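step=encode ok
step=design start
structure_in=
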């Protein structure tokens, strides 16, 4: 490839990643789906052939099957609910078919993996910076960082899934350079501050996982040696925890870990709050709904239908367990991604999505990177999947593109041999 062409592709990829990651933690007038518009525009301008091509690459076939199934289910949901607004989801999944193909053709096979990691780190932290500024503005204006969230910010569970590609890039840079750049150190400190600001358990979990695996990567088990950079990791851990705990203490007058324990006790003692018992009752109502008949168990009832069709099962389950029914008349249910997965898509939908995770795991396993890199990326993939239990991430295009076999996570890894499915 000619040098001019390489620079041209680099610039185009940089624009794609910026339009994807910068809006990843935001909403537009309360709608997360609209943050995909910049990516749609930039990708169409820079890679128009992808949108007019009907060819599906072999490597992208599992993703194509997943999004095709989601397109069918969204049309089905539109017809069942008789709600044209569901058509937005159909367009969203059609776009995901094309953008996943773009990743497969141009980004996944791009040779400079360091460039990809650097761009992902840069634009991810910029996204968190915007998220923090808006949260602080909400704190200053309304004395509440959550007041503005419904209109302009995604929930913290969805926002902090952006930390998965961010820390995957951080890990690769630290392992390859055998040291942590000052820039990345500042980024980690800032990220710890954001976790404290938003009181995000998912964000803290990802940070803690990163530091553990980074520390393990500095230990040579064969020679029983500890690299000097291991102590840098310990310093980063202590500084991150200090930043996290300090901010939380200043705002709550207590330690984060102690506060978390007290919150769990209070929630379990107050059944009127949205606690674990409340969440479990939602899972039970989902089970009752999908096992009501065989077609619903296999295929679900259509995308976005659980918010309406699950209401009778929701009320019945809450009454059975003595929980207060706080649904108002004509109000739809708020469901997390796990409920939506089984209720809307059925067992078949779960198996199709599980196959995509399986293909991504195979990519990670077959990469040429070291053992700890593979272990860390696999752990991030598991965290990504488990995050469906704590919020609704499916409106985030970054969430989808992170776990694909040619997505944000795997595209940073090195492959010396041709990939076999």
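sequence_out=
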């Amino acid at each position: 490839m000619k040098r001019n062409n390489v620079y041209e592709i680099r610039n185009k990829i940089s624009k794609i990643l910026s339009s994807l990651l910068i809006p990843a933690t935001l909403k537009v007038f309360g709608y997360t789906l609209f943050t995909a518009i910049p990516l749609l525009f930039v990708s169409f301008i820079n890679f128009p052939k992808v949108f007019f091509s009907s060819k599906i690459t072999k490597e992208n076939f599992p993703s194509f099957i997943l999004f095709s199934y989601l397109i069918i289910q969204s049309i089905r949901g539109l017809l069942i609910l008789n709600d044209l607004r569901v058509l937005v989801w159909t367009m969203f999944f059609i776009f995901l078919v094309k953008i996943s193909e773009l990743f497969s053709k141009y980004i996944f096979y791009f040779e400079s993996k360091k460039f990809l990691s650097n761009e992902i780190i840069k634009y991810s932290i910029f996204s968190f910076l915007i998220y923090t500024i808006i949260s602080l503005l909400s704190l200053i204006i309304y004395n509440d960082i959550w007041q503005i969230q419904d209109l302009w910010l995604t929930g913290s569970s969805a926002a902090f899934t952006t930390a998965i590609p961010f820390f995957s890039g951080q890990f690769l840079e630290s392992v390859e350079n055998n040291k942590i750049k000052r820039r990345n150190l500042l980024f980690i400190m800032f990220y710890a501050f954001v976790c404290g600001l938003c009181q995000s358990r998912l964000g803290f979990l990802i940070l803690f996982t990163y530091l553990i695996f980074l520390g393990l990567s500095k230990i040579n088990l064969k020679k029983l040696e500890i690299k000097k950079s291991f102590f840098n990791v310990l310093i980063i851990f202590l500084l991150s925890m200090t930043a996290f705990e300090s901010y939380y203490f200043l705002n709550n007058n207590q330690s984060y870990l102690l506060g978390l324990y007290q919150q769990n006790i209070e929630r379990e003692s107050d059944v009127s709050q949205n606690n674990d018992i409340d969440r479990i009752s939602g899972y039970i109502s989902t089970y009752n709904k999908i096992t009501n008949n065989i077609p619903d168990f296999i295929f679900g009832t259509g995308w976005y239908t659980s918010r309406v069709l699950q209401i009778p099962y929701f009320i019945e389950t809450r009454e059975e367990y003595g929980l207060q029914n706080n649904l108002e008349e004509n109000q739809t249910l708020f469901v997390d991604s796990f409920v939506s997965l089984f209720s809307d898509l059925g067992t078949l939908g779960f198996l199709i999505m599980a196959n995509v995770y399986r293909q991504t795991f195979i990519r990670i396993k077959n990469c040429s990177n070291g053992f700890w890199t593979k272990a860390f990326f696999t752990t991030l993939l598991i965290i990504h999947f488990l995050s469906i239990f704590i919020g609704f991430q499916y409106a985030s295009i970054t969430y989808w593109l992170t776990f694909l076999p040619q997505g944000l996570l795997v595209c940073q890894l090195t492959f010396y041999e041709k990939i076999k499915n």
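step=design ok
step=annotate ok -> The mean pLDDT is 85.
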